[in-house]
Amino acid sequence: MTQDGETTMSDSVPEPSATTSTAIIETDALGKRYGNIIALADVTTSVRPGQVTCVLGDNGAGKSTFIKILAGAHEHSDGRLTVDGVERHFASPREALALGIATVYQDLAVVPLMPVWRNFFLGSEPTKGWGPLRRMDVDFMRRTTKSELAAMGIDLRDVDQPIGTLSGGERQCVAIARAVYFGARVLILDEPTAALGVKQSGVVLRYIARARDRGLGVVFITHNPHHAYPVGDRFMLLRRGRSMGDFPKSEISLHELTARMAGGTELEALSHELAAELGSDSEVAKTLESEVKELRT
Ligand SMILES: Nc1ncnc2c1ncn2[C@@H]1O[C@H](COP(=O)(O)OP(=O)(O)OP(=O)(O)O)[C@@H](O)[C@H]1O
Ligand SMILES: [Mg+2]
User: Fold this and answer.
1) Which residue's CA is the closest to the ligand 1 atom numbered 26?
2) In which element (H, E) is residue 144 found?
3) N or C: which end of the chain has fewer CB within 10 A?
4) Boundaries of each ABC transporter domain copy (predicted)?
5) Could you give the CA distance from residue 103 to residue 138 in angstroms, rounded to a whole number?
6) Whose CA is nearest to atom 4 of ligand 1?
């Protein structure tokens, strides 16, 4: 696909017909510069209640930069960011959180040796009693953690076990359930499946779908189109800090998404280069050539 083709497609996307609900977050030509480094440019997409917006891109594509702007950790330097139709410039994560935008970072900030329920309420512990008798309401925390996890379909044997003993996938799920409980309307997940095996990734994808079904707008960052496609409603592609388009699911197939992610043109150039270097019947060049062919079909 030519550069022109890509531009035309992304231009045709923001049709209201493709979506029914009003957006919670909208970005219009959003960008971020660090000095004269352009980390992000021209990102136009939306996050809607009950929908999953996937942000796809390779290492250094600008995915984290994008969500840091949504989460209030970095201020954008170009374009517009609106939440519920109001233009915003977040100066801190607190401001984003106050509007119901919660972020689960990949290096989940948990205290591994503390029980699951303690981590669930970390920083927002409910108390009971007054004055010198005031203390944490441990019973409430235990009960609530158990019931909230159950409501998300997470069946933990024991909420008293240290959170460090849970699998990576389970920990992601606890973080998702926690954000839902504390009233998030938008849930941002930075590569929640990156470090997980096939089965655990499946579990996390299921909870992403659950959060979506509960009406949250989910922003799902990943570099894996096979993780994004089954749960995504909208796909925004980043390459070297630039948006390569924003597509509702009806306008892009898994095959096309994969091809665009892989950067068909770049692969082709690499395959020619290798063929010239190693001879066109070398194994490596042949494999690559057939991969390029497959991407093109
Ligand atoms: N504070 C900063 N100062 C200067 N450049 C930065 C800063 N933060 C990010 N960048 C640059 O912006 C670009 C995008 O980085 P970003 O972390 O958003 O990518 P990413 O898509 O999240 O990558 P990864 O998949 O590796 O997490 C990179 O080239 C990076 O070097
Ligand atoms: Mg990142």
Assistant:
1) 59
2) helix 138-151
3) C
4) 25-265
5) 26
6) 34
Sign (positive/negative) of CA torsion 79, 14, 296, 190? positive
Beta strands in 223-263 (DSSP E): 234-239, 242-248
User: How far apart are alpha carbons 73 and 76 in whole angstroms?
Assistant: 10
- What are the tens digits of pLDDT across the range 148-168? 888 777 778 888 999 888 877
What's the 191 CA to ligand 1 centre distance in angstroms?
14
Establish whether residue 222 lines the binding site of ligand 1, counting it when its CB lies within 6 angstroms of any ligand atom.
no
37 lines ligand 1 (CB under 6 A): yes
Query: What is the whole-number distance in angstroms between the Cα of residue 64 and the centre of ligand 2?
Result: 4
C-alpha–C-alpha distance, residues 90 and 13, integer Å: 27
Q: Which atom of ligand 1 is nearest to the CA of 65?
A: 18
Distance CA 253, CA 68 (A): 28
Extents of the domains making up the chain? 3-113+185-255, 263-297
Query: Domain 3-113+185-255, CATH 3.40.50.300 — does that match?
Result: yes
pTM of the model: 0.78
Q: Is 43 left (phi over 0), alpha (psi -120 to 50) or beta?
A: beta
Look up residue 13 and give its amino acid. Answer: V
User: How far away, in angstroms, is 132 Cα from ligand 2 center?
Assistant: 46
Q: Ligand 2 centre and the CA of 272: distance in Å?
A: 31
